[in-house]
Amino acid sequence: MAQQKNLPTDQSVQEYLDQLEDEQKRADSYELLKLMQEATGEAAVMWGNSLIGFGRYHYRYDSGHEGFSFLTGFSPRKRQFSIYIMSGFSRYESLMEKLGKYKTGKSCLYVKRLSDIDPLVLRALISESVAYMKARYPDRE
User: Fold this and answer.
1) Would you say which domain of life the source belongs to (predicted)?
2) Domain regions of the chain by residue span
3) pTM of the entire structure?
4) CATH number of 13-136
5) According to the 3-state scheme, what is the secondary structure of the chain?
């Protein structure tokens, strides 16, 4: 069975963010950090080399594959932010209509800068997604 790639590390979130060269990316990252901590009530933890996650849950698929992941998180990529909404987006159509300028993948929200989106809508999206994930995957250890 494949080994899980991104696991929690002891790397400092602050040290990681402080080394970001782009000042706006660094400022937006700290704003996202605060928003996600407030929305989740969870501390930020580095997962792998570049993912900042909040909380965690245990998943097990019908195939037998299982592992852990964070409930929500983000990564300040070079071109854009990857914001992880682990429950996907289909149940949040009304929020997505009000969010602003973004693109999505399966569970990833891509945003160039935080000023492109409404932070209150993002906070609601994160809160609702985390609540859904906690209900769907009650085993968090």
Assistant:
1) Bacteria
2) 13-136
3) 0.92
4) 3.90.1150.200
5) CCCCCCCECCCCHHHHHHCCCCHHHHHHHHHHHHHHHHHHCCCEEEECCCEEEECCEEEECCCCCEEEECCEEEEECCCCEEEEECCCCHHHHHHHHHHECCEECCCEEEECCHHHECHHHHHHHHHHHHHHHHHHCCCCC
